[in-house]
Write a structure and sequence with these properties.
alpha/beta, six-stranded parallel beta sheet, 6 strands
Amino acid sequence: MIRVFVAARAGAQRLGLRARLEGPGIVVVGDGPTPDGAPPDADVVVIADAERLPMGGGPLGGVGTRAVVALADDERPARALRGLPLRGWAIVSRDVTAAELRAATEAAAQGFTVLPAALVPRLLPSRGAEGAEPLGEESEPLTPREREALELLAQGLSNRQIAERLGISEHTAKFHVAAVFGKLGAASRTEAVSRGVRRGLITL
């Protein structure tokens, strides 16, 4: 069971987020205007006012056992979250659906990074010349689960089949695949596999 704390200034917004989050596998253990009120055993903090993310970590950091899901429509929160010692984190749009919010929460709790496709070009280096590898020292390494997803991509599995193999929801599998695409700078499954092979992440 994933334990979630909701942080939003407006009470109505907190209620709305709670309604979208609660369901099988997720329980909201509290809410408040800021993340400071999150109990120590909260696995994920969902933050509606992403511009208020604490730059130094504060109640979000610590030993890296907590994940964060931030609602935002630009890349600024992502730049802040990348510097925090978190288990995982996600950025979702402010008009996120219940299914998308739950999937992002599940993925972040499992240690994944989730980004909307529209933000990927702004957060990853340019692909540059044809055939050049786009990721340098700034790139984020694939997590163990993302490597598993990449290996299953190399086997030609669909998102649904990847979900079945990994024992996760199809929505979460989609987020894992999107994270692999983003980190490898790939625009397709074939390109992701090709880049993974060139970097020694997988073998065919």
